[in-house]
Amino acid sequence: MSTDLLAPSPQTDPVLAGLSTEDISRARFLARQNYQRKWKTISERSRFVRGRMLDTLTRLNAPLSLQVIPAVESTYNPYAISHSGALGLWQLMPRTARGLGVRSNKKINGRRSINASTKAAVTYLLQLHQHFNSWPLAFAAYNLGPNAIDKRLSKQPWTAADGIQAMPIPPGTLLYVQHIIGLAALTQENKFIFPQPVKTRSLELCVPVDIHRLARLSGLSENDIFHFNPRLNQAQYLRKTITIHVPESHYQRVIKKMQQAGPLYIKQTIQKGDSLWHIAHNHHISVAILKDMNQGVSKTLHPGQQLKVPLGNMVNESTRSNPLLSKRRIRYMVRSGDSLWRIAQRFGTTPDMIARRNRLSRKSIIKAGDMLWVPARMRPS
Fold first, then answer.
1. Alpha-carbon distances, residue 96 vs 67, 111, 121, 254 (angstroms)
2. Which pTM was predicted?
3. Spatial distance between the Cα atoms of 120 and 116, rounded to a whole number of angstroms
4. Nearest C-alpha neighbor of 54 from the set 128, 118, 127
5. Domains and CATH numbers, the chain
6. What is the pLDDT of residues 144-163, one digit of tens each?
7. Of 270, 253, 264, whose CA–CA distance to 218 is shortest?
8. I need a labelling partner for 38 at 20 to 30 A (CA). Which of 261, 309, 370, 374 fits?
């Protein structure tokens, strides 16, 4: 059965329940005005991820119209990052994500994970709805923070009967809420239509694997695996297995080609005096990569021993990384309590990268109000 057939009708959608016709009409107008030109881009991006998103919404028994929130948050770009460090389809902040069990490491970014980020964001939205007993207030709290909404409501109570325009929230948050309500109405009336999502299946990759080679051998378009799997930080996984999603139409072919998709390498015979560091240095790679390519190798090398060394373009850092993670600089003002590590976590980079970009040492003291250039992994939304 088509996933889209699960969409609720406007009459039964809880997101629109209790709102006046005037409020819905105004929200519909504002959403159409802002998203008419963007909808083609949003629709195309949604094909890669929306199937898994709808599955998660269904499992959590959440309104399916919440699927429009990533259109407002990130224009359905899982690589989008804000200047405050919010990341992914649902624009989760690091602290919120960690509190909801979303984890990241060198290999993957949980906030870009379709399943993990959707589960976290929707769980949070359901908690906000339970707290405020109102979807408009839940949306406002997702944007502004629940404590800020509670403070405003203590001074100016609000119910849906008062009208959306009377919500005690800043103009930017009000427009955010109206965009969600308007898109929910427009999609349910088929004025804005999501295309059918691509059906995918999950599989555990055999390692070592180079995802660029795997895609070419499997007949997938360039970068498609990274569109379906935005959580990937790397294009090469050499040691630990990793699970990815691939189109159902290519599943069997990917399975067959995995064993042939390892990184290209040459074998180097160890000479007297060679060390892992010297070999890595001569080939412009790290010792860690050399160890990954030669699992079980000890620090002490013996003449005549052979090591696998990545070939030419396979040692290039950009080739080893997810190609959709283009790097851009963000001008960031240091906040109270910040450290290089915390800022790096927020923007998906490393403390060393920030230090180098700003000609600092790792031990440099940063103070609230300082301005830093932060190399953030992002794509424009």
1. 19, 10, 9, 35
2. 0.78
3. 6
4. 118
5. 3-188 (1.10.530.10), 200-260 (no CATH), 265-310 (3.10.350.10), 327-377 (3.10.350.10)
6. 999 999 999 999 999 999 99
7. 253
8. 374
